[in-house]
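Example 3.2
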Amino acid sequence: MKLSNDTLKNLPESVLRPTYDRSALTPGIVHIGLGNFHRGHQAWYLHRLMQQGLAQDWAIIGAGVRAGDEAQRKRLAAQDYMSTLIELDPKGRSAEVVGSMIDFVPVEDGNGPLIARMTDPAIRIVALTVTEGGYYIDPATKGFDASHPDIQHDAANPDTPRTAFGAMIAALKLRRDTGIGPFTGQSCDNLQGNGAILRQTVVSLARLSDPDLAAWIDANCTFPDSMVDCIVPATGPNELALVREFGIDDAAPVTHENFRQWVIDDAFCAGRPDWDKAGATFTDDVHAYEAMKIRILNGGHQVISNPGEILSVEFISGCMAHPLIGAFFRKVAREEIVPQVQPVPGMTPTAYVDLISNRFSNPEIVDTVRRVAFDGSSRHTGFILPTLRDALATDSPIEGLALTEALWARMCTGTREDGSTIAPNDPLWDKLNAAALDARDNPQAWLEQRDLYGDLGENARFTDRFARWLRLLHDEGTEAALRAYLNG
């Protein structure tokens, strides 16, 4: 049955669906980046509020700034902007149709429709999921990268921007000039201090063309930090077939694990939904939750995905089932990451490692190693290197972290141990591949990428271990290196 407003009442009884009147919803949020994660996470929390009769004036307007986003808009428009969420629990699968999104802005050069929609006084939050690498951050300094061509374009053409941030600035200028007032900018990406990073990007970009506007944004808009967590695989043929098993024709279904978490700093300048009534947590200490999740879960993904790619393991659950890769994750996490993580209410870092180990091992989650290993240049710098720096500063163990970096370098040579080719899997792939090939004979060539490693390439304790592990990987192979670490 084709998913639409008209067919909701005819869906199989086992499928949960909106009990609220979608035609009565009014918008309150523009969300830029309508991938699977947003629809399986933030949109679900809002949907669950609406199921309680709450937040009826906070419906989501979808948006995007890339040409490919227009295809997603058309897919969702054809089914009245709803998505089927399929929970992949080893105990049994279930499906729920989420109806909290009611429109999707046309994607056009210059982003005129997006700017106009964000100027609407009804819009009080502009949220984003644009990936960790989408905030124009210099990976070495963590500062704003004003040299990027997209940023240079938006600085020179503030009325017809390319980026989501340029569009936000253009809308905020109109809101200031017409007296509508500010909105909250809410990052939902896996970045520690994501609100502060979003503020940095928006204010820094605005300053390049209009310093007065930048000062107004900085003083009047809020950018709350948040921690988001739910494993949401990409949609492919298997997921499209799975939704049909529930009797639904959905062109954009979302599969997800049986776990969600959303921790938010309560800093909203123009109001917000009561997400806590749907299970989110508002707190003044998002940082501790962020650090635990980013370092153990997101960092753990990098620990296992690189050896998985080299050894031709297709799925993350397969990495955990591998006798060496799964054990590698548990040892690195417990002995090297946990000492650099603080507990949060109700959860110790060690208990969190056990939770993540079980989540990664869920065989129902068909999460590819390739997806998890994508964009290592952002993910290693954001998820692994901060832990490594803290471990070096406290003279804590780093053997497994050094091996993790050596495995990344080995993966970036572009060939698996079975001789097959690893297709480019990073925005900086050409540079990474060249450095990785040079590092086969000279390991320091990898660490001389200062845009990634900064001064870590000058730390003898780290460089010596990295070089030893990389040589072992090339000389004896990945399993030999993992075994040496586990037996060390």
